[in-house]
Amino acid sequence: MYIHIPFCKQACYYCDFHFSTSLKNKNELIEALIKEIELRKDELQDQNITTIYFGGGTPSLLSNAELELIITAVYKHYKVIENPEITLEANPDDLSKARIIQLSKSPINRLSIGVQSFFEADLKLMNRAHNANEAKACLEEAVKYFDNISVDLIYGIPGATNAQWIENIETALSYNIPHISCYALTVEPKTALETFIKKGLIKNVDDDLAQEQFHILIEKLETAGFVHYELSNFGKPNFFSKNNSAYWQGKHYIGMGPSAHSFNGKERGWNVRNNSKYIKSIQNNVLPIELETLSQTDRYNEYVMTGLRTIWGVSLLKIENDFGKMYKTYLLQQSQKHINQQLLYIEGDKLLVTKKGKFLSDGIASDLFKLNLS
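Above: the chain's sequence. Below: its structure in token form.
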């Protein structure tokens, strides 16, 4: 289960997720979330909840009492396995020592901390709410109380050198964090970052530099004992994100809160991306969700896209069993040029991306998509 908390202290310049910097309707939104959890209790039928993930926005803006109210509602209305992974996305400025101790006594057993960089210039360029000292102080305390911690870092930041990127990675490693998620800075439409680049106030993102820093990242983290199990994610053995691994392996998930997505294997659903409309709809006992039934081709395309991003790859047997021989033949034909260019390879039953192809995996996947059945 994914739970979207759509509040932030301030807007990061690069972010295009759904959030509000006004907390005025926070109480009503939490009440609506709890009600949505109840209204949708029959959707999962006999399936168990194995992970609960608080994303956002900035879920660490909620108090422990508010988080526990939501978790209690999940346990009340769904079958939850023993010891589920319960993750809280958090910003360093929300994680004082007292708050970390509080959280360690709550049902939350995994922290995903949005550090992004340990350099002040980077944090200012991205308009992050925390500073470098807060990032270091929170990690110093967090590792005393939590075993399962992930840190987010961003590479390809304009003006950030390879040497600074190496220092960012080494600083994160110095805290013995078992999971690191790293993302290339991307210029999303209608974000402040796009506006500043167009006005010439910030240099544009350099794709070649981002690719260099991506390969530095792989080398550094693999040397440190991390498994590069998904394009943007590195974990020590037994510390892969169970929640995110479920998305990439095509498992079912249910999303609560404004803009949250759900998937049951055949249908994809997404909630309205507006806090007021979301609250009003739930108060009227109407789920503010749009549904799309995925065609066989849609499901094939999604499986190829997610599979190629991971160490599990794309199973040729699964393609044949789930979609038919025609799809397997098409996939092998489309893959051949990428195999010749040493971007893809086949090992046993699996189609996988080579180290050389990893940075390009989304583009390679789109080349393997099927557009129609004719």
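The chain has 14 helices and 15 strands.
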